[in-house]
Amino acid sequence: MYPNAHCELDFTSPLELLVATILSAQCTDRRVNAVTPTLFARYPAAADYAAADRAELEELIRPTGFFRAKAGNLIGLGQELCARFGGEVPGRLADLVSLPGVGRKTANVVLGNAFGVPGITVDTHFGRLARRFGWTRASDPVKVEHAIGDLFPPEDWTLLSHRMIWHGRRVCHARRPACGACDLARWCPSYGEGPTDEAAARKLVRNGPFS
DNA sequence: ATCCCGAGGG
DNA sequence: CCCTCTGGAT
Q: Annotated catalytic, A203?
């Protein structure tokens, strides 16, 4: 299932992916991709964000929501990248997380999709599905990440993240999950009166299309 | 726990 | 009109 699941943000470099991912918070990828062509042309390098006019930057990213906070983060991001990393995007989790507007989820997206480092991207979708599948009961994203790390080998992490997110977006919605159209329903502990035990969760790992 | 914030769907 | 959308910082 979802053999070609991939990052749906448009980007051609680690910096572009990092910026796009920051903008994608509480916002659809479609709206991010609508503003990034102009944004990337206007600010090709980290130094360009560092020197950006605040009002102009805010106007460019306005449709993505939270535009004041995001603009401030992007300017701070450019400044930090220039001051501490020679204008380049670092490829280590601890460095990425130290940047303005970059949390663990965003850092893992960049690691997995721009640096080829296995990363489990626990966003709102991944966390919700992991709990519905019985893979964990934790709500803390870091605990979810560790639980999934024990269930799947590192080489599966990045693709698994994309598949979980695709499935969450298209079928296993937060409010009204489309269980009737879900290929995983027969294995899902949360479907109908189905089993809610741990064995059912393990079957989803072994036999489910996510394995 | 709360705020940031616009856009589209039910 | 209410809800949600690939979060992060305070």
A: no
